[in-house]
Specification:
Blueprint lengths: L1 H22 L7 E2 L4 E2 L4 H88 L1
Amino acid sequence: MQNSRYKIIVNILIAISLALPSFGLAHGGEIHEELGVEVPQTVGEAGSLALGILQKLPEAAKRVWEGEAMPFWRNMWAWFLGLWNGTLGPIVEPWLNKEIGKRRPALERQFQEESKEMQDDLWQRFKDLLK
C-alpha cells in the first residue's frame, strides 16, 4: 500500500516538473525586459532569434569562463596547495620519493624497452606504407 503511494507521489512530481516549463511559453507576444527581445510569432522570427543567440553564445561562454570558472578553479588550486604544503605534503612526499627511488631502475628499463618496441613498430609501419 505504501509503495503504491510513493509511486503516485513520484508520478505527480514528474508530471508537474514536465508541465511547469511550458507555462512560461504560454504568454502572448510580450517583450522580455531582461533580454530585450520580443517573443517570436513566426517560424522565421524564431530562426532569426536562434541565429542571434548562436552568434552571441561564444562570447558569452568566454565571458563566463574567464570571469567565473577560471577564478573559481584558481582559488580551488590555491586552497589545495595550501592544504598540501601545510599538512599532506610533508607526510606524503618523503614516502613518495622513497618509493620512486626504489622503483626507478625498473621503470627506466621498462620505458627503454617500450620505446624501442614503439620505434621498431613505427619504422615497420613506415616501411609498409612505402611498399
